[in-house]
Amino acid sequence: MPPPRLPRALLGLVLPPDRRVAIVGELDTEFRRHIAPERGRWRAAAWYWRQAITSLPHALRLRRRRPSIAPAAAGRPHGLWRGVGADVAFGVRLARRRPGYSLAVLATLVLGIGVSAAVISVAYAVLGRPLPYQEPDRLVSVVERQRDRQSSGTLSWQDFLDIRRESRTLLSVAGYDGGSRAITGVDQADRVATVEVTDRFFATIGVTPALGRDFVPADLEPGAPSVAVLVPGAWRQRFGADPAILGRLIQLDGQSTTIVGVLPDDFQFPLRGRAEFFLPLQLSQAQRDRRYFHWMDVIARLRPEVSAVQATDELAAIAGGFAAVDPKYHASSTAVAVPIAEVMVGGVRPMLLAVVVASALLLGLACMNIAGLALSRADARGREMSLRGAIGATRWRLTRQLLVEHAVLAMPAAAIALVLARAMVAAFVAAIPPATRVALPNVDRIGIDPIMVTWALTVAVLATLLFGVAPALRLGDRRFSSAVRAEIGETRSAGRARAAFVATQVAMALVLLGIAGLMLQSVARLASRPHGFKPGGLFTMQISLTGFRGADSVLAAHQRLLAELASLPGTTAAGTIDQLPLDGRGNTGMFRIDGAARDYPEAMRIRTVSDNYFGVMGVPVRAGRGFSDADRRGAPRVLIVNETLARMAFGGQALGQRVTFPFFDGQPSWEIVGIVGDERFDGVDRPMEPAAYFAFGQVPSINFAVVARTTGDPARLEPRARDVARAIAPNAPPYGIRTMDAIVDGSPAVFQRRAALWLLAAFAVTALVLVAIGLYSIVAQTVVAREREIGLRLALGAGAGRVLGAVMRRGLLPAAGGLALGLAGCLAAGQGVSSLLFAIEPTDPGTLTAVAAILAATALLACLVPARRVLRIDPIASLRQE
């Protein structure tokens, strides 16, 4: 049945042209869809007349207030956007009138955007931002490996020369080695980290000094004058960015060194992140002649159109030739080309990616939570929106109003989130142990950058569209009469949408809880793993006795240092070792058992320790004896091995065995006089390695680390220990001063898992809170919307428990579905973070059951609290309302 023509014409005459089609069209649509099918001809016509007459006053006001249409050149806004300022003002007033909703949306957006922006900024800086080198994706690290053990290592000088000479896939090859020197000739003597490099090093990585020159081949010749190139940080901090720095003389280990260059401000070399000076490589005779002496790191640049895989194939062929000239130590050698980015960040990539995925889940969970809140609010405003539509508001007008209302919250949230993200990034960088921080690229350059700003604004815009448009699409089809008829309860579509939001939230939260639970188990098991020594109360300090010539002077200074440190108040004993445990560095080698036909094939850690080192560290002597004062130069040569080496090489019967080492060519054999417990020399998560210990009295060295056992806080020993060291060696200041607890905590294996645990635990707790809010809101909205219906049911005899159960099912059923979906997600996510797990399976049933129980208890409590309002509904009051 068509609408009556007369009232349509009457409204058409009164309404302004820009509103006529919209208002009359919506009235016609309502008539055809609802009124005409439900009522008779005359009743439908009467309804149309009544709607037209009641709309006349509003139509007259619209015509009287209709602004004049100015030409486009006048600069007035387009009609679609006219009145946005009023919408903004209305949105601000609405936010102030509903502070609870506004604060919930604002806080959730700030948390979601801030956390994700901070995590993405860190991940992009470390994993995505290219290094300041020329074509950094073509840089590779050349690593020599043993096929039978697949252990990666450095190259010998002769291997390096063979690769440089024979390779056709590598455009340029350079070597480097890290170290440290005592610097004098400046305001205060200090110990600085250095890198010794071959010629073509800077050309290989694609860096040109900002001041001065690069190294030339003549700088590497034996007896050449000592020169150095400064990194920009050392130039600024030690020399005040002096522009006349070129040609200045300093003393490095007592040798006059001329500064010939300064690197660019953006220079960084994370593989030796602490380095302040680059020096030309000066080789010892042993480094030149011994092909088995592997000590050099090698970096190379691929030729254009050559991949790392192709370079690896060629390097393997070249390494195969090593066996022809040195079958004794290169029989199973091969070499590979590893992209330099993988060498720098391969260890932290799993942790960062896991945190990025977790932050994305948290952001998605926050968006789901706000979408549910927005949908509930839209239902509560259904009558208002239908009334606006009935008096002439178009769908675009309703959509724009909701968009502006949510933009009023989303845009300030994005701005606050940037401040939060910057603070989180600063806190995260400060929490990284120094040894790990300097080994990661671009970490010190993270801040509020375009990545963070773009991410925050993008999420704010998407949140505005999601939360504004979705409710508007549903409200746009409502009419005033249908809204009145649906006023006693929420629509089924809204209930299904909220249930889907809650199920998704529960699934995301369970994934976060599951990953956090697995990481918690990993960190706990890692912390309980024995290190082989007792780190509590241990003070460590590294020193280099530069300037002491001859073994006797070194031994005398060493003995005096230990005696004076042991006599300090609060110190019970002191010892030394050439390389501290858990450092991951130090000498390795192989030996031959006397009477055997060939060398023992497994490489072992080689350490040199003082007499009382094992007692200071708490390493037990399992058999035989430790070192004593009698183990000096000229005395019988003795050796101590750890349990792993005694078991692997001697079947546990190592005492009395005699061995020789290739790096002591032509010297008498060494007798094994003791077996000690295993220490961890590499990461905390790595297995025990075979090790052999020499006595410092028989193999003295100018470079070693001091360990002192204290009765109180070991960090308080630092100033007095510095004074003792400076008094004994004024030109050799101590460095690397740390407690052993700090070394253990700063181990990459511990830091990566602990950092991931803290972040994931924070995300999981936040997810629990958001899930609880979501479930609470869905059940509370159900109780409020159906209060009259529930009261009638109670009045008609329905049991309170039955009604309570029906209300709680509205929240618990989607929560149960989310738990099932989340368990499947946990299984997939566990496989994704398996490289971060330690001594636990990614499908550990105990962990998954525990986190599912925690989430189920949270869901039950979140549903029970609002559902208890059912018991306070007065059935008599409901009957009176009816």
Short key terms for the protein model shown above:
882 residues, alpha+beta, eight-stranded mixed sheet, six-stranded mixed beta barrel, 23 strands, 15% strand, elongated
Estimate what percentage of residues fall within beta strands: 5-15%
Q: Looking at the structure, what is the overall shape?
A: elongated
How far do the termini sit from each other?
35 Å
- Count of alpha/pi helices: 29
Low confidence ranges: 66-79, 476-490
Radius of gyration (Å) = 38 Å
Major sheet: size, sense and barrel closure? 8 strands, mixed
Number of strands: 23
Structure class: alpha+beta
Description:
The chain has 882 residues and is an alpha+beta fold. Helix content is 52%, strand content 15%. The chain has 29 helices and 23 strands. The strands form three sheets. Strands 14, 15, 16, 17, 18, 19, 20 and 21 form an eight-stranded mixed sheet that branches. Strands 3-4-9-6-8-7 form a six-stranded mixed β-barrel. Strands 13-22-12-23 form a four-stranded antiparallel sheet. A hairpin with a 5-residue loop joins strand 1 and strand 2 (152-153). Helix 25 (748-785) packs antiparallel against helix 27 (800-832). The radius of gyration is 38 Å and the shape is elongated.
Q: What's the topology here?
A:
Blueprint: H1 5-14, H2 17-38, H3 41-65, H4 84-97, H5 99-128, E1 139-146, E2 152-153, H6 157-166, E3 170-184, E4 190-197, H7 201-205, E5 211-212, E6 226-230, H8 232-239, E7 249-252, E8 255-262, E9 275-280, H9 285-289, E10 297-302, H10 308-320, H11 322-325, E11 333-339, H12 340-345, H13 349-380, H14 382-390, H15 395-431, H16 434-437, H17 450-475, H18 480-485, H19 492-527, E12 538-544, H20 551-566, E13 571-577, E14 588-589, E15 592-593, E16 604-609, H21 613-617, E17 621-624, E18 638-642, H22 643-650, E19 658-660, E20 670-676, E21 691-695, E22 703-710, H23 718-728, E23 735-739, H24 740-745, H25 748-785, H26 787-795, H27 800-832, H28 845-867, H29 875-881
Parallel strand pairs: 4-9, 6-8, 16-21, 18-20
Antiparallel strand pairs: 1-2, 1-10, 1-11, 3-4, 3-7, 3-10, 5-8, 6-9, 7-8, 12-22, 12-23, 13-22, 14-16, 15-19, 17-20, 18-21, 19-20
Helix pairs in contact: 1-3, 2-3, 4-15, 5-13, 5-15, 5-17, 13-17, 13-19, 13-25, 15-17, 19-25, 19-27, 19-28, 20-23, 25-27, 25-28, 26-29, 27-28
